[in-house]
Design the sequence.
């Protein structure tokens, strides 16, 4: 499904709610969910050269139905360190999950930093299959926590008042069949939504 399909879905929702008839357009619907979320930059900020590229990942071989189950599972299983994830652009059908060599029954605890280079409003969107929870700057900005087919989030507005590196943690699992994990953004003034590029991610360690 494309970004524009999702826009159409939002419009349909708005029509069903009678908002368009009342003269309140799609932008009003989208921004209704926005607002300051209090995202906090990493403190202290990682020094230049101290970060490796991509995001670190810890993998778990487990059959999961929800992010809550995953969190419980991680209390008893330390998982295995995986190959770092360069960027979140995985829509692989029946293929291997993220940087694993397996195509089903994977939990992934993905951690590192994301760089917001300028202040302003960043619009992000998440595309997932199966469950996902996205935390940025210590705030859970999105979750779609149970088993589902490819599905987009709505547009999520992040108000960044202080440019810099923000901690990011994405909890994700793939139960069976196809898998997808994508993160898009539209930085301030760009006017285009695209993958968050690899240059915007970093993590400590190798
Ligand atoms: Ca799946």
Sequence:
């Amino acid at each position: 499904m494309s970004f524009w399909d999702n826009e159409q879905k939002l419009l349909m929702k708005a029509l069903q709610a009678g908002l368009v008839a009342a003269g309140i357009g799609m932008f009003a619907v989208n921004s209704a969910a926005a607002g300051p979320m209090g995202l906090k930059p990493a403190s202290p900020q990682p020094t230049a050269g101290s970060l490796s590229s991509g995001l670190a990942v810890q993998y778990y071989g487990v059959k999961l139905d929800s992010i809550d189950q995953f969190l419980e599972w991680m209390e008893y299983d330390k998982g295995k360190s995986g190959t770092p994830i360069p960027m979140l652009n995985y829509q692989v059908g029946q293929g291997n999950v993220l940087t694993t060599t397996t195509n089903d029954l994977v939990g992934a605890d993905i951690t590192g930093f994301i760089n917001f280079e300028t202040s302003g409003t960043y619009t992000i969107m998440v595309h997932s299959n199966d469950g996902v929870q996205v935390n940025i700057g210590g705030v859970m900005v999105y979750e779609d926590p149970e088993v589902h087919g490819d599905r987009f989030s709505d547009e999520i507005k992040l108000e960044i008042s202080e440019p810099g590196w923000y901690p990011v943690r994405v909890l994700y699992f793939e139960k069976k069949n196809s898998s997808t994990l994508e993160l898009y953004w539209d930085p301030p003034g760009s006017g285009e939504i695209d993958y968050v590029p690899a240059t915007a991610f970093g993590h400590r360690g190798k």
Notes: The radius of gyration is 17 Å. The first helix runs from residue 3 to 16. Residues 17-35 have pLDDT under 50 and may be disordered. The domain at 35-203 is CATH 2.60.120.1560 (Jelly Rolls).
